[in-house]
Amino acid sequence: EDQVTQSPEALRLQEGESSSLNCSYTVSGLRGLFWYRQDPGKGPEFLFTLYSAGEEKEKERLKATLTKKESFLHITAPKPEDSATYLCAANAGNNRKLIWGLGTSLAVNP
Amino acid sequence: GAVVSQHPSRVICKSGTSVKIECRSLDFQATTMFWYRQFPKQSLMLMATSNEGSKATYEQGVEKDKFLINHASLTLSTLTVTSAHPEDSSFYICSASSGVNSPLHFGNGTRLTVT
């Protein structure tokens, strides 16, 4: 069964304290691994798409990496404004079949 | 680019009434849009796929007669919650993609409260 598991469920960091969020997936025929950021009461905001193992993408303090079994979202020197829930989703064939994780709730304290 | 607008952001209605939620792609055409429902602390749940010019495709367990979807144009899809009940209270989010190999972009969601 296709599945996406995110860990940890919640993470609290001090400003400037770098860390990584994990997204493990078991999906047959992966056609893209997506990372989104979701603020309370808002829709998810697209961050990255990764397609193949070894691929990396960066945006400001965020870097996403992909292996054959998992993806990491690295947050370097986070700021309070990085506080949000980070969601990952795997595309198992087409956009209709996005398999979503439950998210990691990140809180960055000033 | 790839902006999806959803309206209203919040709605409170009485039990038994119907509510319509609009989803628009502002700067691209979307032959397909998707409607999700999200409960607190839970993952996004796909409700249905909205296809321009044809009937929507509903996920298993989603009542098509309760959640009416109309994709009237390449930039507009609507979700109507008919005869709403308190258990329909939830966060509804639409999304669309500008192409087969493009990521989904989401609206800001609609918080529905049925009293």
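qc> Chain B touches chain A at residues 2, 4, 6, 32, 34, 41-44, 46, 49, 57, 91, 93, 95, 97, 100, 103-109, 111 (CB under 8 Å).
qc> done
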